[in-house]
Design a protein that fits this description.
single chain, alpha/beta, TIM Barrel, 2 domains, 13 helices, 9 strands, globular, binds iron/sulfur cluster
Length: 347
Amino acid sequence: MIPISNIAVEKERNEKENWRTILSRSRISRESLFQRLGLDNNCTSASAADCSEQNAESLFPLVVPEPYLQKIQVGNLNDPLLLQVLPQTKEFLNVNGFIEEPLAEQDFSPVPGLIHKYKSRVLLIATQSCAIHCRYCFRRNFPYSDHRNSQESWQLSLDYIAKHEEINEVILSGGDPLVMSDKALNRLITQVDEIKHIRRIRIHTRLLPALPQRVTNELLDIFKNRRCRLIVVSHCNHAQELGEDVANALARLHSQGIQLLNQSVLLKGVNDDARALATLSESLWELNVQPYYLHLLDKVSGAAHFDIGEQEAHKIYKCLLALLPGFLVPKLVLESPGERSKTPVSL
Ligand code: SF4
């Protein structure tokens, strides 16, 4: 376990380090994660979290960057942030209804690297990399290498968008688009911005809570002076993810006039509690972020232990409605393959 004084050193090092250096150290072993958090490597302590299991890393590698790691409570195997990244033996369970690709996104991919499910907007798979691996991710089994492997595939995506004038919004997703280099991201945003019928570019990212150092002056320059309106959609699931570093990053984006939204996933053991969700919404609002969506879990194999079921979700959501003013309540939605929009969950 790292002594408290060394945690302070790590924090200071983080503040000075380039985001790319931090990113390069984010692939860690179970042993070092447990050691860093002062947890029992043999998992003998009683816990609702189940034992972390090294082999589950073979299903989806353990990736967690230092700024996120610092927000996990030392010694707590049930920490809501730890549970989102911790490989567990439960991931090997075969649970009815949980499948490799629950959203069948490949059926809606007219050209590699592009998903066109909803009439006016398309999703660009900008990269296959993420700064953090969320164990519940519906794209944890996505065959990225079939989708974004050459300059030619970029051109095919851009040509498709240019030909379809009904598209007015492009969503950069992944992976996480903000792990791209400044040069590559700038080129992509510029190319999309040049397509006259595109009015909005939306960037879906988990880097704000995971690696807020990514919000550099250079990134803000890339976002500046675009013809299209830029929207950054953050992915935070718990208020504990919103430290001072995250608040600074959000403030810098907000100061550039960028619209900030947040989406969360309802996860057992993490945020399946109306008060935790209300605190998240209140905290986001203080940071100029509008709560947008609360997703029911997409039923991807390996993530069944995060499922709370629809009835429980209804109960939690009803409580949430009673705790918050309407404008702070994210929409409860689920995604079904073939539907022309997200489906609002009716109570
Ligand atoms: S950052 Fe996003 S795409 Fe990457 S693992 Fe997490 S939820 Fe999935």
